[in-house]
Every structure is written in structure tokens, then in C-alpha cells.
Amino acid sequence: MTMAGNLRKVTGLGRGGGLRRVARLARRRPRVDLSHPARSPLGSSVVNCVTYRDGVRTPQGGDPVDAVERMRERGAGFVWLGLHEPTDQEFAGVADPFDLHPLAVEDAIEAHQRPKVERYGETLFAVFKTVCYVEHEELTATSEVVSTGEIMVFVGQDFVITVRHGRHGSLGPLREGLESDPAQLAKGPSAVLHAIADHVVDEFLSVIEAVQADIDHVETEVFGEHGARVDPGRVYQLKRELLELRRAVVPLGRPLEELATRPIRVVEPEIQAYFRDVADHLLRATEQIAAFDELLNSILQAHLARVTVAQNEDMRKITAWAAIVAVPTMVCGVYGMNFDHMPELGWRYGYGLVIGVIVVACLSLHRGFRRSGWL
């Protein structure tokens, strides 16, 4: 079956039956992000399918499949097909005409992959982990701080296929930015791959900045007046969320280095310089995450130290008061014994003398403990 026939299965619009089928599928599945008014779903998982020639979006009058055929006949331009969480059946109509490798297709459908770059013949397959900062009014021991998703990218000589997983990481604004710069978009599919990588890394830096605000807030509370009462679970939660962020950021270093240094047929040599810039930004993000992890360790140790100091202060206070109370307890215990012959038992002023001795002894001990800082 030709590429046109397969794409018609996925993008069959313009016919009444196809439109009704798309509407039914759209009601079953959550709606995807369609930020551009000219964009409309081409299927249950297809977000957009656009052809570009000389960096300019081609007119949308006509069937998208016909536009793809005309583009390949002329031998210029490329197709950008965007998908959102496709199923096996939905992706089958796309994999065959673009000659996508079955292993890459399996990874794109199942998701939950590590960031990587793989080459399958004339096609490059890249996986990016996307991150999103989850807004919260107050950080607790169970707060979600970082949410992750994935973007898979297939890059060929005349096509780019993006597969997005997760409810964030929309590529609508990215597409609009590229369309406003035809000179960059005219460099081909590798320019789109660079824009996606740059967009993902910029989101890393934005999330890191937001996480830093949470860390600064916890640090201020730990070193505040009531720092010993801060819940350590909040620090542990930040460390767990930082680990999730690390899993998205750190593994991307080697794929970006490969894109920036190794010759790849579908990546223009001119674009490789742009990948080096993205790799520099990723290195900064990696260093910041490592610094945050060390800072959280220090905050946790400082919190435990403050708890220990507070407990020692409480124990000193308890010990001091126990010593003060021990004086009247001892005197009263001695004079409470039932013996007939005890000193001062028959003396008129004996009771007052004993009470006076107790008061003086207690006041002396209290003053001594105050001077030493125990009270």
C-alpha cells in the first residue's frame, strides 16, 4: 500500500463519515492541546500534519495526503506530523509509509523511556523527557513538585514525526516560533529537532528555578526561630522530586553530545553548532541539580542538628528543675520519718527554719542554673 493510502487511513478528513468517526473518538479521549487556530485534529491521536517548503508553511487548501505527495514529487520541503499518545492501531498507518523501525515504534507507543538518540537506517529516533512544575499553595511531605512526560521524535530526510506523552509539553508555541523564522525552518527537519531539544532544556531550567524557590523557603524555615519544629518529610519530598528531575536531565547529556559532535546524515552540519549550545545549557541544569541535592543534604543535617540541640536544651531544663525539686523532697523525706528523737522536733522555730533553708537552697540552685544557661 502506498504512503498516501496509509496516511488517508489516519488523516481521512473531508468526508462525512471520516469527520463523524473523528468526533466520536474525540469524545472518548481527552482533548489534546491545539493552540493554533489553523490546526485541527486529523485523527484521534493526530494533533497536526503540516508541510513546509523553503521554511514556509504550505497552504492548507486540499487533502493533506495530496500535499505530502506533491512535496515528495518536487523533492523539496518536509512534513511535520504531530501525534499525542497514539495506540498501536493508530500508529500503524504512520509507521509503514515512513518506514519506521518496529523497535522505535514500540518505544514511541509504550513510552517510559530514558532520553536517548538511536539511528535506524536513514531515520533518527530521539527521546526527550519533559518536565513541568506543579503549582502548590504549601509544600507538604506528599506534595507533587515535578511532573514528567515524554516527547519522541522521528527525523528523516523529508519528515519529522513527534509523539508526545503526558498532559504538558505542548509543541504548539514551538511550532509558532519556528514558523515565524522561515530561515531557520528552511534548514530542514534537523532544525525542528534542535528546536524541540532547546525547548525541552529551557523547560528544565524553568522548573529548576521554581524548585529553587521551594528549597529557599524550606531553608529559611529550618534556620528560623522555630526551625526544630519543621517537618523533615518536606525536605525528603524535595529530594525525591529532585531525583525525578535528575532522571529527566542527566541522561540527556550523552545524546546531545552525539548530536553535537558525531556526523549524522539527517542532521545538517550547521545545526550541530546549535546542539552544542543546548548541551551547554543542559550542563548548567545538571550542575544546578547536583548543587540542590547537596544543599538539601546540608539542610537536612542542619535540621537534625537543630533538633538535637533543642532536645539537649530541654533535657538541661528538666535536669535543672529536677535538681531544684530534689531539695524540698529530700528535706521533707527526712523529717517525714517516724522517729521519736530527731533534731529540732521539739523546737518552736524548727518548722520555720526548715522552710527557710529549703527556700534559700532552691533559690541558690535556680540562680546558679540561670547563670550557666540551663534555665
UniProtKB/TrEMBL annotation:
Keyword check for Zinc-finger: no
One CC-aspect GO term: plasma membrane
Catalysed transformations (reactions): Mg(2+)(in) = Mg(2+)(out)
Keyword Magnesium: yes
Membrane topology: Multi-pass membrane protein
Pfam families the record matches: CorA
GO molecular function, one term: cobalt ion binding
Subcellular location(s) per record: Cell membrane
InterPro entries linked: CorA_cytoplasmic_dom, CorA_TM1_TM2, MgTranspt_CorA/ZnTranspt_ZntB
Alphabetized UniProt keyword annotations: Cell membrane, Ion transport, Magnesium, Membrane, Transmembrane, Transmembrane helix, Transport
Role of this protein: Mediates influx of magnesium ions. Alternates between open and closed states. Activated by low cytoplasmic Mg(2+) levels. Inactive when cytoplasmic Mg(2+) levels are high.
UniProt protein name: Magnesium transporter CorA
